[in-house]
Amino acid sequence: MDxxxxxxxxxxxxxxxxxxxxxxQRAKKLYKxxxxxxxxxxxxxxxxxxxxxQRNMKKIGExxxxxxxxxxxxxxxxxxFNHQTKEIKKDRxxxxxxxxxxxxxxxxxxxxxxxxxxTGWRERQRRKKRRRQQMNKPKKPNVDxxxxxxxxxxVLPQKTKFPKVVKLLYRWIKEYMNVDNREYVxxxxxxxxxxxxxxxDKEGRQDVICVxxxxxxxxxxxxxxxxxxxMIGRAWQLASVLWCQCFTDDAxxxxxxxxxxxxxxxxxxxxxxxxxxxxxxxxxxAARNEAKLEAKTEAKLEAKEEEALEAKLEELKxxxxxxxxxxxxxxxxxxxxxxxxxxxSDGEDFFGGGCEDDDESSEEEECxxxxxxxxxxxxxxxxxxxxxxxxxxxxxxxxxxxxxxSVEIESSSDSEDLEMESFVFPVPHLEESLISLxxxxxxxxxxxxxxxxxxxxxxxxxxxxxxxxxxxxxxxxKEQQTQVEAWQARIKVLQxxxxxxxxxxxxxxxxxxxxxxxxxxRQVVDADSNAWSAKQTFDSREKSGARHVIR
Length: 551
What we know:
Layout: H1 3-7, H2 20-36, H3 40-58, H4 72-90, H5 92-103, H6 121-136, H7 145-155, H8 162-176, H9 182-192, H10 202-218, H11 220-223, H12 227-245, H13 251-270, H14 272-325, H15 342-350, H16 358-368, H17 372-412, H18 415-420, H19 430-451, H20 456-471, H21 478-497, H22 528-534
Helix pairs in contact: 2-3, 7-8, 8-10, 10-12, 12-13, 12-19, 13-19, 13-20, 14-15, 14-16, 14-17, 19-21, 20-21
Region (Disordered): 82-143, 320-417
InterPro entries: DnaJ_domain
Protein name: J domain-containing protein
């Protein structure tokens, strides 16, 4: 029993004998109130509480109930024990001994000391070594925010790890993305939209939707700056959010998704002419570049052929001159027989035929009598001719082609492209975003809807949407038009093959299974005798005699 709680007085306010007056007044007041209410139990409890407070103040405690006090011998022993413990605690030698024993196995404790399990020498050395290793261990460097994003971007293309990494990417975007580093995030998300397994995992679809919706909402001002930014935002939304929502099993989500896809299809129809002109211009540039490359390769081949011809001519001329120089020398055989025209015939074979006239042979002899200086001059002239050929073929034509290409590239490239090269994430052209939008619309969203048209509540909505896309397929590519036509033909075949069933669900409120009427039709057949008796009726018009009339 807590006396202070019964009296309603905190124990912290009763510290001196003078404070008992307040407690006494409080006890009298409570006693009178309980007495007037004739509550003897509470009144007696108040009196006991006051006595306990008074006893605690006088410090009587447990000794008040003892019949015999402490004896003289007991008091002497207590004094001796207390004196001895004081002396032990003051003795330095005892303290030193205690310190030594505390580290070892044997020790003794004084009253109040906590007992600890002693550790051996090896254990202490092991702990010191571990502590030293932890202090000398190099701390892991703090990973920068952009470094963490780069690590996530490196793991995202892996199909098995994609669902877990997308959750980390969403957490990084919510905690660290701001206006300064959003271009790095855009570059990562642009690569993520190109992944073919983006919507394969069921749980990962929700994370992908959360990532792109958060980024598009957080940077809504940036995506509304101009048409290029607005179009890249629509392309990302179609390639990620709408594609994931096409796999839904909710009728309302499917309806809203088809409505958004209708808006995207209208946008594709609106910019059809711009996309066609852009693709034609791109094809012209590609054809022009191919023609220039072909011309360049042909010029190089012609130059190489000319070089080979010149080299052959030089070799033939050099061999012919050597043969002519060797003519005046008349080697004598052992028998004294001389063959002066042997070398000349060999020289004639190098030029492809023999010389029949004596005049030609005399001219060749005159040429062979020239000095070495004339030969060097001719070689220099031939080299000069080769250099001129190379300069005309390679240096002249190739340099002119390169100059034309550089001038054309400079004229075709806009100033905006040069400015965007300095940014981390260069925003693609409006037409490029539209091309990717059209591609993802057909090969991702329409393909997912065609796969998920199985349920009865989704079949009518998907079939109606495909019918509308089929009628307006002129804004798509030829390959995409072929794909849409194939899907529409398959849908029509499936519709014809399926039989009409009673109670077929056209909306979510109708039952999946056909409804059967539980009412029964009964037919009663009577015998012929009953038919004759039914005709025997009383004619009320015959009053006289009360006769029955057979009809």
